[in-house]
Amino acid sequence: MRVAVVENMKNTPLGSLGVALAEANAQLDYFRPYLDGRLPGSIFEHDALVVLGGEQDALDDTNHPYLPALARLMLRFGESGKAVLGICLGAQILARAHGGENLLGRTLEFGWKSIDMTDAGKVDPLLAGLETAFTTFEWHSDTFKLPEGASLLATSPLVENQAFRIGRAAYGTQFHFEANAEVVAGWRAGFETSIERMEPGWLDRYPDLAAAYAAAADANGLAIARNWVRLIKVTGDAPTAAGDVQPGNVQLA
Fold first, then answer.
1. Closest CA to 8 of 107, 106, 94
2. Mean pLDDT across the chain
3. Is 161 exposed, middle or buried (0-12, 13-18, 19+ CB in 10 A)?
4. Does the CA dihedral 133-195-19-57 come out positive or negative?
């Protein structure tokens, strides 16, 4: 199993998703287009595609000119029936790829929050084994309108579109299910100024909040990660070289 992982900024670890991929013995090829503009050159070298979060918005083509190509890449992967996963910014780009409208700076959600499954979510394999109301981690102010043909799987009182599926196994989650306690602790240490400005007092409350919510969020995140990994179909023998690849420039029409 070979999985392409697209990072849109530094300090975006895979967390619980990395655990599930390691359990499946997946080979991970990392792409960092925010540094060099480079993405997988085709959809044929990987069995699945992961697009992580980032500080930019999903329409910031001027400062991040790789975004249109990344949207096309997600669309092509999904249309081929391969598993796609967009988290936070990745979900917003997936919505864009399928014609959904991106909504910028609408509602801030930060910290551990409760998410509610829709009726579609209750029967979707991505959320199998979770309670119909589950705890996860949020960090965003942008969101999106659901693309035509997408199934809404999860929602919250503040932001309606929290998770969706389009096609066989292309998923977007507005929430950071991958952000286990270790990831959140790293963000707390690495983004203190931003967090205090965004959510005054959260850093002081962090120990109590983590004690109350982190364990449940970690269990939910790992369940979602394992569920998505099970949807990956291995289509052929993948190269076995370890470490980061040296990708070519995207050539997607």
1. 94
2. 92
3. buried
4. positive
For 14, 70, 214, 246, the CA distances from 61, given in Å and listed in that order, are 25, 11, 35, 23
Q: What Rg value do the Cα atoms of the chain yield, rounded?
A: 17
What is the tens place of the pLDDT at every residue in 182-236? 999 999 999 999 999 999 999 999 999 999 999 999 999 999 999 999 999 997 6
Contacts of 145 (CB under 8 A, 6+ apart): 95, 100, 101, 103, 161
Dmax over Cα atoms in the chain, in whole Å?
A: 51
Amino acid at 153: L
**Structure-token pair, residue 96:** 């864009």
Residue 249 confidence (pLDDT) above 80: no
Query: Would you say 220 and 17 are in contact if contact means Cβ atoms under 8 Å apart?
Result: no
Q: Are the beta carbons of 245 and 29 closer than 8 angstroms?
A: yes
User: What tokens appear for 171 in the block?
Assistant: 């998923």
Statement: residue 95 has pLDDT above 80: yes
Residue type, 197: R
- Structural domains present in the chain: 2-105+116-132+140-179+221-230 (3.40.50.880)
Query: Which pTM value belongs to this model?
Result: 0.91
216's tokens: 């449940």
Q: Can you tell me which residue has the tokens 């364990």?
A: 215
Q: Cite the DSSP H helix spans in the chain.
A: 16-23, 33-36, 67-79, 89-97, 119-123, 181-190, 192-198, 202-230
Using one digit for the tens of pLDDT, what is the confidence trace for 164-192? Answer: 999 999 999 999 999 999 999 999 999 99
Q: Which of 131, 122, 50 is nearest to 93 (CA)?
A: 50
